[in-house]
């Protein structure tokens, strides 16, 4: 075996584990199922606010708000955000309670590619509500060269 074939084979073996390191629509669906189980997820009550066109995926503003009275008897317990093309399908989960007053979570996230973002709200009664948004990323996160 010559040196070139050996190095090419080593590079192929080394890269194989990373081929599946990115989330897919299927892994996003599986991550959502781990949160909601067999419960139905309905569209509505959730508003997902992020820009549809993102110039730089390194810092993307995201706000999730949910219609809820936020009382002890009826409140949002958690907000979960998922993506389909970043390294992990789970972006974040935020736990809430009636003392929050409003069911609103804002943050900045990284996006590695154009993709669909899904937000799911879990109510105190065990219901799940959702919203989704398609985003176009022109400069993906983590792919810029350091200057």
Descriptors:
38% strand, 3-stranded antiparallel sheet, 6-stranded mixed sheet, Immunoglobulin-like, alpha+beta, 147 residues
**Helical content (DSSP H or I, runs of 4+):** 10-25%
Total beta strands:
9
Apparent shape: globular
Q: Give the count of structural domains.
A: 1
Return the string of H and E elements: HHEEEEEEEEE
Please explain how this structure is put together.
- The chain has 147 residues and is an alpha+beta fold.
- The chain has a single domain (22-137), classed as Immunoglobulin-like, CATH 2.60.40.2470.
- Helix content is 20%, strand content 38%.
- The protein has 2 helices and 9 strands; from the N terminus they run ααβββββββββ.
- The chain is globular and about 70 Å long.
